[in-house]
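Dear colleague,

As promised, here are the two records you asked about, laid out in our usual form so they can be pasted straight into your sheet.

NAME FIELD: protein one
SEQUENCE, THEN STRUCTURE:
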Amino acid sequence: MSTATAGGGPASGPAPTPGDPPVTPSRSVLGTRPWVAACFLLPALALLGALVVYPIGYSVHRSLFDASGGGFVGVDNYREVFTDDRIRTALRNNVIWVAVAPTVATALGLIFAVLTERVRWATAFKLVVFMPMAISMLAAGIIFRLVYEQDPDRGVANAVWVGVHDTFADPAPFPGAHPRPTGDLAASGGGAFTTKSAVRAGSPAALPLVAVKPEDVSGAKDAVPPREVAGKVTGTVWLDFAKGGDGTAGRVDKGEKALAGVRVEAVKDGRSVASTTSAADGTFTLPDAAAGARLRLPAANFAASYGGVDWLGPTLVTPAIIGSYIWMWAGFAMVLIAAGLAGVPRELLEAARVDGASEWQVFRRVTVPLLAPVLAVVVITLMINVLKIFDLVYIIAPGSSLDNANVLALQLYQSSFGTDVNQGVGSAIAVLLLLLVLPVMLVNIRRMRRERRR
């Protein structure tokens, strides 16, 4: 049965019955009117447009104009991005960062998460490893700028490195020492010093040195003048400097200090025929084979103290900064992986052990595959973070190595606001960074959708 409309035509649909609820306007799936939902979303959409969409659009537009912003240059700015040496260095460094930093930080986080499951103090260890995340990039940069100081007395890294080096290699006894220019000793190449005249048995040799650091002779004995020994070549090595300047050059004066541990070689025709080391009182004795030879003090006696590694030099500056980044973010990776590890079914691990699998096989063939989704989240998050790295590079790298440590985000800042301001090139770099981040974000979105379907 149909009802008639006001115009006399039949109305579509069944007639309402007395028990039916009143007809209401259409609602969305969530039971909310569309215009109400739009009102609630409008502030968020406005902020998204003002803070994300507009800057992206403006950057693309600005990248097509010159430095002044008044002349259209097309893709010239993008051409400069791929031809300028500094920007190409920044791009290469970004590739190194993306390849190394997320991988190493995730691997360390996985190792920490797995190993801390078997110790009682796991919570304390995780707290210590995660603590650098509470430090800002600025503070971390200042910390590691001090850690990588070249001076071993200030830089922790070089203090440790020099300590290990000096454990296996004896330092020079008197670094920087040398003879007086007017004496019998003269430079003979490679930092060594050799007497100008040959020595004779029974005729003592004087080997005076100057420019010895006071700390190297603190506690040293007073030098003893060389004594004649029949059939032997003798001599004394000492610091030819008397307090007050009252001494005579080339002669052992009262109060002048002996130089102990100095290696002395007798050289004939460029070949060492005998050698010895000066005693605590500075004296030395060579066999009669040294007669007619010249005395040489090898360069090993005066080599400069080992100063460690130039961590912030052009060669190692990027790996050094990556190390500081890993120090900060390995804790982040560990916490996420530990959370994923807590959800791994223990019966699968026990079943693998019962079947005879070793702990390494259980880790490689069971634990890691089950943690693959979590590992993917960590790696992708760190890759996005690394592509935007700026603070650590700007703070840690000294001015002499800044170009070698350059990255795209830092170059964007320098091109846009540095000495050679060109916001057209800076905007082109910003667009390039966006294009590099987009594939990583798309992979992450697809991964999240697959996880949601499960």
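NAME FIELD: protein two
SEQUENCE, THEN STRUCTURE:
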Amino acid sequence: MGTNATNEMAGANKPGFSERKAFDETKAGVKGLVDAGVKKIPTFFHHQHDKFEQASNSGDHVVPVIDLANIDKDPSLRQEVVNQLREASETWGFFQIVNHGIPLSVLEEIKDGVQRFYEQDTEVTKEFYTRERYKSFIYNSNFDIYSSPALNWRDTFLCYLAPDPPKPEDLPQVCRDILLEYGKHIMNLGTLLFELFSEALGLNPNHLKDMGCLEGLYALCHYYPACPEPELTLGTTKHSDNDFLTVLLQDHIGGLQVRYQDKWIDVTPVPGALVVNVGDFLQLITNDRFKSVEHQVLANHAGPRISVACFFSTAFRLPSKLYGPIKELLSKDNPAKYRETTIAEYVAYYVKKGLDGTSALSHYRI
């Protein structure tokens, strides 16, 4: 039985199932609703607002920005960056990086390529719409459409980039070349970041790489259309990421927020910067040293908002490899806080649970 059929059966008794199924079967996503001129958003997009909903940006808290310029040439600069990265990962779980080596022209072209895909004729994009999880290119709206309490105001395509790049003919022509090029740049950047994270843990620079953290990479390319009633819904529900590390490119519109000291803090777009955040599996293997924190994206009257999130995860590359807290980080005073698991098992649990506002990590605590 396909993934889609399984998910449908699981959600068949939920309120609003038939409306969700009808929306899914249009294969036009949220953009299709906007193109049809909706003024009132369907009720299955309505979210219960919680006490954290309003951002509390007094200017006291700003997500750290780390400058990677010349760290390959100056050991003292590199050590300073390692220290900044350690502090950001232990407290925020989020930081932005500048002078990361990816040309601005490449960043602009990947955003343009993503937008070009979504703004093709609907009959073209429909050909790519699927809920099968193992294709090299997957376009749909809301991966958890039949399990989540409320849908998110966004459409998404997923593309596996490493270790086995997709065949060019499997990718949409309008963004084919830039997706493959961007994947190479992100792999190079990921190699550096995992070295810096290893050093920040007091380990050999290759430690995380040797564990397989770089073995898999995929991109989630989101399209958040302008929303007629943004106060009723969200672009992305609060969640943490189910990977080792995420590298995100967001456009100028903003809306990304991170939970810090029980407040929502805006991750303000910085021109040319990339957002880096710790994933659940990095928190697990560092035994809570580095924090995978909740974040969300607000819906907005402005749009479309484009973002490209690249996830380092071995779920589909090394599905049976067991991961637990790194032995070198454990001691009598710091025993393991998590049981071992495979990323495939973790991701399956995460997907089944859906974006319901709770952390999947708690399921694996000892």
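A couple of things worth noting about protein two: Residues 223 and 306 are 5 Å apart (CA to CA). The chain is about 30% helix and 20% strand.

Best,
R.
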